[in-house]
Specification:
Largest sheet: 3 strands, antiparallel
Order of helices and strands: EEHE
Radius of gyration: 13 Å
Strand content: 15-25%
Protein name: DUF1059 domain-containing protein
Number of domains: 1
Strand order of the largest sheet: 2-1-3
Structural class: alpha+beta
Helix content: 25-40%
Organism: Natronococcus amylolyticus DSM 10524
Bound molecules: zinc ion
Length: 51
């Protein structure tokens, strides 16, 4: 899971070693602290393109 801010360079990702819950919590914190809009990208599962 990746989350990023539409209004500044803030982002959080499970690639950084955080759990999805932690990433979500950080996104909410960023919103509460700044009022910025945070959007998320959910990557598709790795096997989705198999034909
Ligand atoms: Zn921001």
């Amino acid at each position: 899971m990746h989350k990023y801010c539409l209004e500044c360079d803030w982002k959080a990702s499970t690639d950084d070693g955080d759990s999805e819950q932690e990433v979500s919590r950080k996104a909410i914190e960023h919103f509460v602290e700044t009022g910025h809009t945070v959007d998320s990208i959910r990557l598709p599962p790795p096997c989705v393109n198999k034909n």
